[in-house]
Amino acid sequence: MAEKTSRRTILKSGLAGTIASLFLRPKAAISHDIKRYPDSFGVLVDLSRCVGCRSCEAACNAEQKLPSPETPFTDQSVFEEREHGQRRRTDETRYTVVNRYDVPGQEHPLFRKVQCNHCQEPACLTSCFVNAYTKTPEGAVIYNPDVCVGCRTCMIACPFYIPTFKYSSAFEPRILKCIFCYDTRLKYGKQPACVEACPQEALTFGRRDELIKIGRRRIEENNGHYVDHIYGEYEAGGTSWMYLSNVPFEQAGFNTEIPHEPILDSVKSFLAIVPMVLTIWPALFAGFHLLATRKEGRQELQHENGREEK
Amino acid sequence: MKTFTYENVDLPITGANKTDGTSWSIKERLWLGLSLKQYLLQLQRNPVNWLLLIIFSVGLPLLLQRYTFGLGSVTHASNDYPWGLFLGFGLFGMVPLSASGFLLGTTVTLFGREDFHPIERLALLNGLLGYFFAVVYLEVDLGMPWRLAYPMVVSFGPAAVLFLVAWHVATYLSVQIAEVLPALFEWLDRPALKTHIKRIALGLTIAGIILSTLHQGALGALFTYAPTKLHPLWLSIEFQWIHFLCSAIFGGLAMVIVSSTLINRYMHWRCGDAFKKSLDSLTLGMAKGASYAMITYLVIKLVALAHDNEWEYLLTGWGLYYLLEIGLGVGLPMILFAKGVRYSAVRPVRIAAFITVVGIIWNRLNTSIYCFNYQIYQEIPHWKEVWLTITLYALYFVVYRFIVYRLPIVFDWEESSNRTSPL
Fold first, then answer.
1. Structural domain contains residue A35
2. Domain with B133 in it: what CATH number?
3. Distances from the Cα of B107 to the Cαs of B2, B40, B114, in angstroms?
4. Phi, psi for residue A171 in degrees, rounded to 5
């Protein structure tokens, strides 16, 4: 430093820095507890009952007023569709899809419905920096397009690859995903359109706690028919939509490596350091500065003293 | 420009006054003291400008297309890869390379290493522009760019890592503007304003350290949202933020070495005596810092491997690729840096700096695109996305050059008071 650094300037700038950091300080480190609503709704999907009729897709399309697809919903050839070697996924024109899996050793092909699983502690919600997502007490994870900035972090964070982005629009892009028919049905305690449309009772709508009991009972009563696991009971901290399967879940395209803790847990190790850095760094580096420039100060002082003596 | 400096004793502009004592007008300062004809001539003589012209002639229409027909018209509109090159290169790549501002600011202002002063301004400018253009890239990538300020004013999601990134990058940008302002004040003949900034310099520097530590780390922590999607070798839940922060340290230093090397070579007329004289020793000094940061980085990479017990992955194809990235991107330049410092040779250091910059970008692209979704498929960006990324980088280059040509970044401004008597 060219000019002399007195203790006073240090204190002044240190204080200024601290005050600044207090004002600038985002409350990122305080990860809030997400309420687990005890009476929330959910759906239990029984893969062994699904016949791949795609009625649920059609019902969803009508209920959410989505554009009609090129091929009708009765067309079974869509099960052969592959993009980048992947089966169909949700996109801006469809919030739910049914995919076929030919499992070796099984007489019938297996069908799996994909839609938002409506997590108990949704990664999309916790990763959103404008709080565009809400987990409602009814169990739905809904989205507010009025505050969304379009950063697409929710799509990165969702372990189920559910949220999709309306890339086709320059002026009104938004995230599109299944909202559990919240606005039109769930809010009034009614089951979503896809569940209502299912002719096979493959989808069971009810309170989440009840569904887990139903699932357990079904596993027990049909001894050995089902895999002894309800997918979604614990995955990613638990989801409102859950699955029963008669084949190992990974053979039906499920990711079985998804941790049982909420996705937010893996981010917490970083969030925890934020307050430490904010509080310790100013003092620490101001101290370094004092140490590093101490010699200079002393030399100057000696210099001055020397001059005075002369 | 070189030819004009030979022809005219006044050029290049190094202070408020011409040699005869009259002062340069702002217009003259903007035109580098050249007449319009001369200015256009020097533009035309430089082959780089023709390359820029080609890039912009395709890139600017593409930019228009992106803002009228949506992101989907210039990218693959992938729902599986929501982040492409604009963020992978522009945000995750540019920000670590812009750590230079806070690093050199810390060295000079906080640790009192005045000997690094000749290169401090270049480092600060490099930081400021890097951050600014990271935001420009973000503005191209965001679905609703007009809502950029929403996380600050409209709606808050304080538990999100990106919330922290947004706030910190925004505040740090203002800190950096304040740090670069003295150069502008000098150029505008308002040296008095400098004292205000100087008074808060230490506060600004410390704020810079805090903000940089957190947002460099936060960029890494963003990937901890995808523990099942990113390959485990590129993701360490506990150490990701340290990896990103530590690599930003040598990335930022390497970027200043690269930038100063280019400026010294292709804009030699612009460099001041202090800059020219001290550049070699400063380069070696920064190389020393970079090699320390690199060995630290290698050690914590190793710690992360051991902590997550990921040794078996090293024997897979991904593991070989990982070792290749570490070896070529960090190991090789580290050895070159160390050699350069040991034998006081600047050449290997400069080569190493180039490799390091490429290595950092490689690492960030691997993390954000190549090793993301490693279990499903590889995304190859659309050519328009690549071209747009290059276009924005060319814009960055043009702005960078524009400022270095004019403001006292690599030379010392001669105040008008210093030259009161006409020669």
1. no
2. 1.20.1630.10
3. 33, 40, 8
4. -105, -25
Q: Are residues A22 and A107 in the same domain?
A: no
Q: Is the pLDDT of residue A218 over 80?
A: yes
Whether the CB-CB separation of B419 and B15 falls below 8 Å is answered with yes
* Helix, strand, or coil (residue A272): coil
Q: Strand locations in chain A, DSSP E?
A: 41-46, 97-101, 110-114, 133-135, 141-143, 164-165, 175-176, 203-207, 241-244
- Residue B12, preceding bond cis, omega within 30 degrees? yes
The answer as to whether B12 is a domain residue is no
* Distance separating the N- and C-terminal Cα atoms of chain B: 25
Domain, as residue range, for A21:
7-30+272-309
**Is the confidence at residue A178, as pLDDT, over 90?**
yes
Do B159 and A264 count as a contact with CB atoms less than 8 A apart?
Answer: yes
CB distance from B383 to chain A under 8 Å? no
> Does A92 fall in a domain?
yes
Which residues in chain B are closer than 8 Å to A114, comparing Cβ atoms? Answer: none
Nearest CA distance, A221 vs chain B (angstrom):
34
SS3 A26: coil
Asked if A62 has any chain B CB less than 8 Å from its own CB, the reply is: no
SS3 A204: strand
CA distance to B201, B381, B382, B386, per residue, from B75 (Å) = 43, 7, 5, 9
The CA–CA distances, whole Å, from A75 to A33, A54, A94, A97, B226 equal: 45, 9, 15, 13, 35
Q: Name the pLDDT band for B182 (thresholds 50, 70, 90).
A: confident
Best to test chain B binding among A11, A27, A131 (most B CBs inside 10 Å) = A131
Q: Does B240 reach chain A within 8 Å, measured CB to CB? A: yes
d(CA A258, CA B175): 41
- Name the residue range of residue B245's domain: 46-408
The rounded distance, in Å, linking the Cα atoms of B4 and B415 is: 23
> Radius of gyration over alpha carbons of chain B, in Å?
22
> Helix, strand, or coil here: A113?
strand
Q: Which region holds residue A136: left if phi is over 0, alpha if psi is between -120 and 50, else beta?
A: beta
B contacts of A90 (beta carbons < 8 Å): 79
Q: Which of B77, B142, B147 sits opposite A167 (nearest CB)?
A: B77
Q: Which of A27, A165, A263 sits opposite B225 (nearest CB)?
A: A263
Over range B401-419, report the average pLDDT.
Answer: 79
**Greater confidence, A64 or A300?**
A64
Identify any residues that bridge with A218 across adjacent strands, giving them in sequence order. none
Q: Which residue has the higher pLDDT, B52 or B29?
A: B52
Same domain, A53 and A174: yes
Q: Tell me how many domains chain B contains.
A: 1
Contacts of B80 in chain A (CB under 8 A): 84, 86, 89, 161
Give the Å distances, CA to CA, from B397 to B39, B129, B400.
18, 9, 5
Scored b (16 or more CB within 10 A) or e, A284-302 reads ebbeebeeebeeebeeeee
